[in-house]
Amino acid sequence: MGILNVTPNSFFDGGKYKNESEILSQVEKMLAEGADFIDIGAYSSKPSAEFVTEQEEIDRIVPAIKLILKHFPETLLSIDTFRAEVAKASIESGAAIINDIAAGELDDKMFDVIAHYNVPYIMMHMRGNPQTMQSLTQYDDIIKEMLFYFSEKVAKARSFGINDLILDPGFGFAKTTDQNYEVMQKMELFNVLELPVLAGISRKSMIYKTLNITPQEALNATTFLNTIALTKGAKILRVHDVKEAVECVTLFNKLNL
After folding, report:
1. In this protein, which residues make up the domain named Pterin-binding (predicted)?
2. Catalytic residues
Protein backbone atom coordinates (compact mmCIF):
# COMPACT_ATOMS: atom_id res chain seq x y z
CA MET A 1 0.00 0.00 0.00
CA GLY A 2 1.65 3.19 -1.23
CA ILE A 3 1.08 6.38 0.75
CA LEU A 4 -0.01 9.59 -0.98
CA ASN A 5 -0.49 12.56 1.33
CA VAL A 6 -2.31 15.53 -0.19
CA THR A 7 -1.72 17.51 2.99
CA PRO A 8 0.64 20.44 3.57
CA ASN A 9 1.83 19.11 6.95
CA SER A 10 2.43 15.34 7.00
CA PHE A 11 5.57 14.35 8.91
CA PHE A 12 7.51 12.96 5.92
CA ASP A 13 6.02 14.15 2.63
CA GLY A 14 3.79 17.06 3.66
CA GLY A 15 3.32 19.60 0.89
CA LYS A 16 5.23 17.47 -1.61
CA TYR A 17 2.26 16.69 -3.86
CA LYS A 18 0.49 20.00 -4.33
CA ASN A 19 -0.57 20.00 -7.96
CA GLU A 20 -1.94 17.57 -10.50
CA SER A 21 1.34 16.71 -12.19
CA GLU A 22 3.09 15.99 -8.85
CA ILE A 23 0.22 13.77 -7.70
CA LEU A 24 0.07 11.84 -10.99
CA SER A 25 3.84 11.45 -11.16
CA GLN A 26 3.97 9.92 -7.67
CA VAL A 27 1.01 7.62 -8.31
CA GLU A 28 2.53 6.45 -11.60
CA LYS A 29 5.84 5.75 -9.81
CA MET A 30 4.18 3.76 -7.01
CA LEU A 31 2.05 1.72 -9.41
CA ALA A 32 5.08 0.98 -11.61
CA GLU A 33 6.97 -0.18 -8.51
CA GLY A 34 4.22 -2.67 -7.68
CA ALA A 35 1.76 -0.97 -5.33
CA ASP A 36 -1.49 -2.92 -4.96
CA PHE A 37 -3.34 0.04 -3.44
CA ILE A 38 -2.73 3.78 -3.07
CA ASP A 39 -3.73 5.21 0.32
CA ILE A 40 -4.68 8.88 0.07
CA GLY A 41 -4.75 11.10 3.15
CA ALA A 42 -5.95 14.70 3.33
CA TYR A 43 -5.72 15.20 7.11
CA SER A 44 -2.38 14.69 8.80
CA SER A 45 -2.69 12.36 11.79
CA LYS A 46 0.80 12.99 13.12
CA PRO A 47 0.94 13.80 16.86
CA SER A 48 -0.54 17.23 17.61
CA ALA A 49 -1.60 17.68 14.00
CA GLU A 50 -3.55 20.81 13.28
CA PHE A 51 -7.34 20.49 12.94
CA VAL A 52 -8.76 20.42 9.42
CA THR A 53 -12.46 20.99 8.73
CA GLU A 54 -14.51 18.23 7.18
CA GLN A 55 -15.22 20.33 4.09
CA GLU A 56 -11.55 21.16 3.62
CA GLU A 57 -10.67 17.46 3.82
CA ILE A 58 -13.32 16.66 1.17
CA ASP A 59 -12.10 19.53 -1.02
CA ARG A 60 -8.57 18.13 -0.89
CA ILE A 61 -9.36 14.47 -1.38
CA VAL A 62 -12.18 14.26 -3.93
CA PRO A 63 -10.31 16.08 -6.73
CA ALA A 64 -7.29 13.82 -6.08
CA ILE A 65 -9.45 10.69 -6.37
CA LYS A 66 -11.05 11.87 -9.62
CA LEU A 67 -7.69 12.90 -11.06
CA ILE A 68 -6.03 9.57 -10.30
CA LEU A 69 -8.91 7.46 -11.58
CA LYS A 70 -9.13 9.52 -14.76
CA HIS A 71 -5.50 8.72 -15.59
CA PHE A 72 -5.18 5.32 -13.87
CA PRO A 73 -8.74 3.92 -13.89
CA GLU A 74 -7.83 0.47 -12.56
CA THR A 75 -6.21 1.84 -9.39
CA LEU A 76 -7.55 0.66 -6.05
CA LEU A 77 -7.73 3.73 -3.84
CA SER A 78 -7.83 3.54 -0.07
CA ILE A 79 -8.92 6.69 1.77
CA ASP A 80 -7.29 7.56 5.08
CA THR A 81 -10.09 9.30 6.98
CA PHE A 82 -11.99 8.99 10.25
CA ARG A 83 -14.99 11.03 9.02
CA ALA A 84 -18.10 9.39 7.61
CA GLU A 85 -18.93 12.25 5.23
CA VAL A 86 -15.40 12.21 3.80
CA ALA A 87 -15.65 8.43 3.41
CA LYS A 88 -19.04 8.78 1.67
CA ALA A 89 -17.82 11.47 -0.73
CA SER A 90 -14.68 9.45 -1.47
CA ILE A 91 -16.51 6.19 -2.21
CA GLU A 92 -18.98 8.03 -4.44
CA SER A 93 -15.99 9.47 -6.31
CA GLY A 94 -14.57 5.99 -6.92
CA ALA A 95 -12.53 5.03 -3.85
CA ALA A 96 -12.48 1.32 -3.00
CA ILE A 97 -11.38 1.06 0.66
CA ILE A 98 -11.71 3.17 3.82
CA ASN A 99 -8.75 3.31 6.20
CA ASP A 100 -9.97 4.70 9.55
CA ILE A 101 -7.38 5.53 12.23
CA ALA A 102 -10.20 5.69 14.80
CA ALA A 103 -12.16 2.51 13.88
CA GLY A 104 -15.39 4.51 14.12
CA GLU A 105 -14.59 6.09 17.51
CA LEU A 106 -14.46 9.66 16.18
CA ASP A 107 -17.58 9.48 13.96
CA ASP A 108 -20.53 7.31 14.95
CA LYS A 109 -21.85 7.37 11.36
CA MET A 110 -18.78 5.63 9.91
CA PHE A 111 -20.08 2.07 10.31
CA ASP A 112 -23.34 3.07 8.58
CA VAL A 113 -21.41 4.40 5.58
CA ILE A 114 -19.15 1.34 5.31
CA ALA A 115 -22.14 -0.99 5.55
CA HIS A 116 -24.19 0.98 3.02
CA TYR A 117 -21.45 1.03 0.38
CA ASN A 118 -20.11 -2.43 1.27
CA VAL A 119 -16.41 -1.53 0.95
CA PRO A 120 -13.42 -3.05 2.80
CA TYR A 121 -12.70 -1.30 6.08
CA ILE A 122 -9.33 -0.92 7.80
CA MET A 123 -9.72 -0.41 11.56
CA MET A 124 -6.75 0.97 13.46
CA HIS A 125 -6.05 0.99 17.19
CA MET A 126 -5.80 4.46 18.70
CA ARG A 127 -6.91 6.33 21.80
CA GLY A 128 -8.22 9.88 21.70
CA ASN A 129 -7.51 11.82 18.51
CA PRO A 130 -4.36 13.05 16.75
CA GLN A 131 -4.27 16.10 19.03
CA THR A 132 -4.48 14.10 22.29
CA MET A 133 -3.25 10.58 21.57
CA GLN A 134 0.30 10.99 22.86
CA SER A 135 -1.02 11.75 26.35
CA LEU A 136 -3.03 8.50 26.40
CA THR A 137 -0.30 5.86 26.64
CA GLN A 138 -1.10 4.27 30.03
CA TYR A 139 -1.83 0.54 29.69
CA ASP A 140 -1.81 -2.32 32.20
CA ASP A 141 -1.27 -4.83 29.40
CA ILE A 142 -1.12 -3.20 25.99
CA ILE A 143 -1.57 -6.33 23.86
CA LYS A 144 -4.46 -7.63 25.96
CA GLU A 145 -6.17 -4.22 25.82
CA MET A 146 -5.62 -3.95 22.05
CA LEU A 147 -7.06 -7.42 21.49
CA PHE A 148 -10.13 -6.48 23.54
CA TYR A 149 -10.46 -3.23 21.56
CA PHE A 150 -10.28 -5.07 18.23
CA SER A 151 -12.65 -7.85 19.31
CA GLU A 152 -15.25 -5.23 20.25
CA LYS A 153 -14.75 -3.35 16.97
CA VAL A 154 -14.99 -6.51 14.89
CA ALA A 155 -18.19 -7.57 16.69
CA LYS A 156 -19.72 -4.13 16.12
CA ALA A 157 -18.72 -4.09 12.44
CA ARG A 158 -20.22 -7.53 11.91
CA SER A 159 -23.44 -6.42 13.61
CA PHE A 160 -23.67 -3.84 10.80
CA GLY A 161 -23.06 -6.55 8.20
CA ILE A 162 -19.47 -5.45 7.56
CA ASN A 163 -17.28 -8.50 7.03
CA ASP A 164 -14.37 -7.31 4.85
CA LEU A 165 -12.16 -6.09 7.69
CA ILE A 166 -8.43 -5.38 8.08
CA LEU A 167 -6.73 -4.59 11.40
CA ASP A 168 -3.96 -2.02 11.92
CA PRO A 169 -2.13 -2.03 15.30
CA GLY A 170 -1.55 1.71 14.92
CA PHE A 171 2.19 2.10 15.39
CA GLY A 172 2.85 5.59 16.77
CA PHE A 173 -0.76 6.20 17.83
CA ALA A 174 -1.26 6.49 21.61
CA LYS A 175 1.88 4.44 22.16
CA THR A 176 5.34 5.24 23.47
CA THR A 177 8.40 4.12 21.54
CA ASP A 178 8.87 1.12 23.83
CA GLN A 179 5.20 0.21 23.50
CA ASN A 180 5.50 0.32 19.70
CA TYR A 181 8.33 -2.21 19.85
CA GLU A 182 6.40 -4.41 22.26
CA VAL A 183 3.46 -4.42 19.83
CA MET A 184 5.82 -5.29 16.96
CA GLN A 185 7.43 -8.06 19.03
CA LYS A 186 4.04 -9.65 19.79
CA MET A 187 2.19 -8.77 16.60
CA GLU A 188 1.50 -12.40 15.70
CA LEU A 189 -0.97 -12.48 18.61
CA PHE A 190 -3.39 -10.38 16.54
CA ASN A 191 -3.70 -13.32 14.15
CA VAL A 192 -6.05 -14.91 16.71
CA LEU A 193 -8.73 -12.57 15.32
CA GLU A 194 -8.36 -14.30 11.92
CA LEU A 195 -8.27 -11.07 9.94
CA PRO A 196 -5.52 -9.55 7.76
CA VAL A 197 -3.16 -7.25 9.68
CA LEU A 198 -1.72 -4.08 8.14
CA ALA A 199 1.64 -2.75 9.36
CA GLY A 200 2.21 0.98 8.99
CA ILE A 201 5.69 1.78 10.28
CA SER A 202 7.19 3.59 7.32
CA ARG A 203 9.73 6.22 8.44
CA LYS A 204 7.89 6.75 11.75
CA SER A 205 9.35 8.28 14.91
CA MET A 206 9.70 4.85 16.55
CA ILE A 207 12.46 4.36 13.96
CA TYR A 208 14.11 7.72 13.53
CA LYS A 209 14.04 8.78 17.18
CA THR A 210 15.49 5.44 18.26
CA LEU A 211 18.34 5.80 15.75
CA ASN A 212 18.72 9.55 16.20
CA ILE A 213 18.25 10.19 12.48
CA THR A 214 15.67 12.05 10.36
CA PRO A 215 12.60 10.55 8.64
CA GLN A 216 14.45 11.10 5.36
CA GLU A 217 17.22 8.78 6.58
CA ALA A 218 14.90 6.04 7.85
CA LEU A 219 14.36 3.90 4.74
CA ASN A 220 16.87 1.17 5.59
CA ALA A 221 15.47 0.74 9.10
CA THR A 222 11.90 0.83 7.74
CA THR A 223 12.79 -2.03 5.41
CA PHE A 224 14.19 -4.00 8.35
CA LEU A 225 11.04 -3.56 10.46
CA ASN A 226 8.79 -4.28 7.46
CA THR A 227 10.58 -7.63 7.17
CA ILE A 228 10.00 -8.33 10.86
CA ALA A 229 6.32 -7.39 10.42
CA LEU A 230 6.00 -9.93 7.60
CA THR A 231 7.48 -12.67 9.80
CA LYS A 232 4.88 -11.74 12.44
CA GLY A 233 2.01 -12.22 10.02
CA ALA A 234 1.42 -8.78 8.44
CA LYS A 235 -0.45 -9.10 5.14
CA ILE A 236 -0.22 -5.45 4.03
CA LEU A 237 2.68 -3.02 4.33
CA ARG A 238 1.66 0.66 4.23
CA VAL A 239 4.74 2.51 2.96
CA HIS A 240 6.18 5.65 1.44
CA ASP A 241 8.72 3.59 -0.52
CA VAL A 242 6.94 0.98 -2.62
CA LYS A 243 9.89 -0.51 -4.50
CA GLU A 244 11.74 -1.50 -1.32
CA ALA A 245 8.60 -2.90 0.31
CA VAL A 246 7.76 -4.99 -2.76
CA GLU A 247 11.31 -6.38 -2.68
CA CYS A 248 10.75 -7.29 0.99
CA VAL A 249 7.52 -9.11 0.20
CA THR A 250 8.98 -10.91 -2.84
CA LEU A 251 11.99 -12.27 -0.91
CA PHE A 252 9.87 -13.11 2.14
CA ASN A 253 7.46 -15.10 -0.02
CA LYS A 254 10.41 -16.90 -1.63
CA LEU A 255 11.47 -18.17 1.80
CA ASN A 256 8.10 -19.86 2.41
CA LEU A 257 8.42 -19.22 6.15
Report:
1. 1-250
2. 204, 238
